[in-house]
Design a protein that fits this description.
Strand content of chain A: 25-35%
Number of helices of chain A: 3
Number of domains of chain B: 1
Number of domains of chain A: 2
Radius of gyration of chain A: 25 Å
CATH class of the largest domain in chain A: Mainly Beta
CATH class of chain B: Mainly Alpha
CATH superfamily of chain B: Cytochrome c oxidase-like, subunit I domain
Strand content of chain B: under 5%
Largest sheet of chain A: 5 strands, mixed
Order of helices and strands of chain B: HHHHHHHHHHHHHHHHHH
Helix content of chain A: 25-40%
Largest interface: A-B, 81 and 80 residues
Oligomer: heterodimer
Largest sheet of chain B: none
Order of helices and strands of chain A: HHEEEEEEEEEEH
Structural class of chain B: mainly alpha
Chain lengths: ~220, ~550
């Protein structure tokens, strides 16, 4: 569930080879027709259409659409689903031009300075629920390594789940153009073992919402 | 022809005050081309910025640059030039003496000029030009986040230009539907005219949504309470993309129509699958009104699966159009003119844009690629590598008709070669950068990202594109000075515009050939070939 990484890789593994194959096929056909057409000595053909062939071809295209749509729908459903009992819930608040991550216990992570983007901890291998919103314009929560993004709207929260299968740092950026310092609006999510995550969370919850650094 | 001789100096005045559809269209084409150059210069500055570690312009200036680049190319270049081609050639192709509503057509030209100048006047204000992207999306474009008058001028400029485009679309549509010559039935209209019918239907149905969106945005800026909060932002985007997706096809149909004409002519044969092509165009136009929210997949506020389905279904009409183009080349006797080369460039490169569009129509892929340079690469492959090549195919094909002189073929081929190289150098690396996580609309990127060398390559490519455009300008100047007369029909054309003089007289035709199909001039040639063959054959 909420496995955007594998959904992306699965769909890409089907879409990209088809796209490249179609491109190669059209290019090869075109080149063949060009060579033959250039060498042609006799008058051009007069065939104006081939209705049966065209109808058959249209049906083939429709079948391709159906196949692609099935692949897409089956992969999208789990990404959009949100878990009933997520392990952790994190509120993400974006504003021009910074990020604040607030945990259920009251711990908070935000920028130390514009040179040091906030690093929020998440547990490895568990469902993490994000509850995102913006305080001004539209921002975009994008984690390229997970192939996932969601726009954060002002005053209207959006909910999505993510799972981090490998420990390590996942860089994030604001994907929706939001004004002058859009390019500098970075953040990171650090996936650590659930035990270490709980320890970290406990320490920060005790220190209260004023805690400003994650590591 | 003309009985009143105006002094030579009156030519610009005549260009801006004549109600002859040909003069209006040439004026519109010239204005649009000037905006193309202006928008291109902005792109060159942006490319320099991205190759030079963000050291050329400030962040705020960069935001103005990409906003005005996108706005100029869409609102002031591609859409106007597409409709201008319709304004010039639809009346000719259907055998009409004039366009329907010639004064409205002239008003459209004035609105384009005024709208464009208004939008660009933003650069003269203290706060600079608009900087909220060509979408102008709320709340970034509201009075709090974009307080300057540049944003106001942008709104008025876009509304004026768009209103003018709606006038043109009405003129062209009515001409095709109501002003056809005797014998020119709907199904005998050539592919370019049909592509303009589909285009104008989209303009008429979709463009009002943009004017509504911008009126609401203006009201929000001045009074508030219209587009408040997150849902106000969603509402703006619903309206904007209800315009913003159909406009993508307004920037596509006319050019595939031009390519269809060019391919048929330079393969010396009848367009293959004419009826299927028309059905595909109309299905395309209908479907394209139902796909707008695929631009909003990552908002989580629309029914993604519905829009994924309708967007992916575009494969069917697009596939049929491609089959018909290839079918026309099949068994043709080819002449590799500059126009034909540009048409081939369109066919190959637009395909890259189309196929990556199918990729982006799948939400699981879009979640990973939206707002990245992958998207920038995708739509530049459709609009520049596709439509702009289609446009130049049309320019090399029709320039003799419009001016009476031929463009230089060798310079044209050089133009094609440079433009093809530059285009792919500039836009192909963007697919890679986008997939690696480079966000669009950023004036700088972290030096640790390793994206610099590809960005430098793109900037070199942009320079090559600029050189190719220079080759085109030189070609036009040389061809107009040392004139090589074109005659009525230099290419052995098939459609009615080639049955009159170059340029055509004020009311287009002195006489029309019989119209028995969508290629009346080809009919005449085939008849005479058959006659010769019959006479040669033993009785």
């Amino acid at each position: 569930m909420a496995d955007s990484l594998h959904a992306y890789e699965h769909v890409r593994g089907i879409y990209f080879p088809i796209a490249i194959g179609v491109f190669a096929l059209v290019l090869a056909t075109l080149l063949l027709l060009l060579v033959r057409g250039r060498l042609r000595q006799t008058a051009p053909g007069r065939t104006a259409d081939a209705p049966r062939f065209e109808i058959g071809y249209a049906l083939l295209l429709a079948c391709t659409v159906a196949f692609l749509i099935v692949v897409t729908f089956r992969s999208e459903t789990p990404i959009d689903r949100t878990a009933a009992h997520p392990a952790v819930r994190i509120e993400v608040t974006a504003a021009q031009w910074s990020w604040v991550f607030t945990y259920a216990g009251g711990a908070t992570v935000s920028d130390v300075s514009s040179w040091q983007p906030p690093v929020a901890l998440v547990p490895v291998g568990q469902e993490v629920e994000f509850y995102g919103r913006s305080r001004d314009v539209i921002h975009g929560f994008w984690v390229p390594q997970l192939h996932f993004q969601r726009q954060l709207l002002p005053e209207y929260p959006t909910r999505f789940d993510l799972r981090f299968d490998k420990p390590g740092r996942y860089g994030g950026v604001c994907s929706v153009f939001c004004g002058d310092r859009h390019a500098q609006m970075h953040f990171a999510l650090e996936a650590v073992s659930p035990a270490r995550f709980q320890r970290w969370l406990g320490e920060h919850a005790r220190r209260g919402p004023s805690a400003r650094s994650a590591s | 022809m003309s009985t009143v001789t105006l002094p030579a100096r009156a030519a610009p005045l005549r260009a801006l005050a004549s109600t002859d559809h040909k003069r209006v269209a040439v004026g519109a084409g010239a204005v649009a081309f000037a905006f193309f150059i202006a928008g291109g210069v902005l792109a060159l500055v942006m490319r320099s910025q991205l190759a030079a570690d963000g050291g050329v312009v400030s962040q705020d200036t960069y935001n103005q640059l990409f906003t005005m680049h996108g706005s100029t190319m869409v609102y002031l270049f591609v859409v106007p030039v597409a409709l201008a081609a319709g304004l010039y050639f639809v009346p000719l192709q259907v055998g009409a003496a004039a366009v329907a509503g010639p004064r409205m057509a002239l008003a459209g030209l004035w609105l384009l000029v005024l709208g464009g100048l208004t939008m660009w006047a933003g650069f003269l204000t203290s706060g600079g030009a608009a900087a909220a992207s060509w979408w102008g999306f709320d709340p970034l474009s509201d009075a709090i986040h974009s307080p300057g008058s540049g944003m106001e001028l942008w709104i008025f400029g876009v509304v004026m230009a768009t209103a003018g485009q709606m006038l043109w679309a009405g003129c062209v549509l009515v001409t095709a539907l109501r002003c056809r010559a005797p014998g020119m039935t709907l199904m005998r209209m050539p592919v370019f005219t049909w592509s303009m019918v589909a285009t104008c239907l989209l303009v008429v149905f979709a463009f009002p949504a943009l004017i509504v969106a911008l009126a609401l945005l203006w009201a929000q800026r001045h009074f508030g309470g219209v587009l408040d909060g997150g849902l106000g932002a969603v509402d703006y985007q619903q309206l904007f993309w209800f315009y913003g997706h159909p406009v993508v096809y307004v920037m596509f149909f006319p050019f595939i129509g031009m390519v269809g004409e060019v391919v048929a002519t330079f393969c010396g044969r009848r367009f293959f699958g004419h009826s299927a092509f028309i059905l595909a165009l109309l299905a395309f136009a209908g479907l394209s009104m139902t796909v707008w929210a695929h631009h909003m997949f990552t908002m989580g506020q629309v029914t993604n699966k519905y829009f994924a389905l309708t967007s992916t279904a575009l494969i069917v009409p697009a596939g049929i159009e491609y089959l018909d183009l290839l079918g026309t080349i099949w068994r043709g006797r080819l002449r590799f003119s500059a126009a034909f080369l540009f048409a081939l460039g369109f066919i190959v490169q637009f395909l890259v844009g189309g196929l990556t569009g199918i990729v982006l129509a799948s939400p699981p892929l879009d979640y990973g690629l939206n707002m990245s340079y992958f998207v920038v690469a995708h739509f530049h492959y459709t609009i520049f590598a596709g439509s702009a090549f289609g446009l130049f195919a049309g320019v090399y094909y029709w320039f003799p008709k419009v001016t009476g002189v031929l463009l230089r073929e060798r310079l044209g081929k050089l133009h094609f070669l440079l433009m093809a190289i530059g285009t792919n150098l500039t836009f192909f690396p963007m697919f890679v950068l986008g997939a690696e996580g480079m966000t669009r609309r950023i004036a700088d990127y972290p030096s640790s990202s390793g994206w610099k060398s590809l960005n430098e390559l793109e900037t070199v490519g942009a320079g090559v594109i600029a050189l190719s455009v220079l080759a085109f300008v030189v070609n036009v100047v040389v061809s107009l000075r040392a004139r090589q007369a074109a005659g009525d029909d230099p290419w052995q054309g098939q459609t009615l515009e080639w049955a009159t003089s170059s340029p055509p007289p004020r009311h287009n035709f002195h006489a029309l050939p019989p119209i028995r199909s969508f290629a009346p001039l080809l009919d005449l040639r085939e008849d005479s070939e058959d006659l010769v063959a019959r006479e040669r054959a033993p009785a």
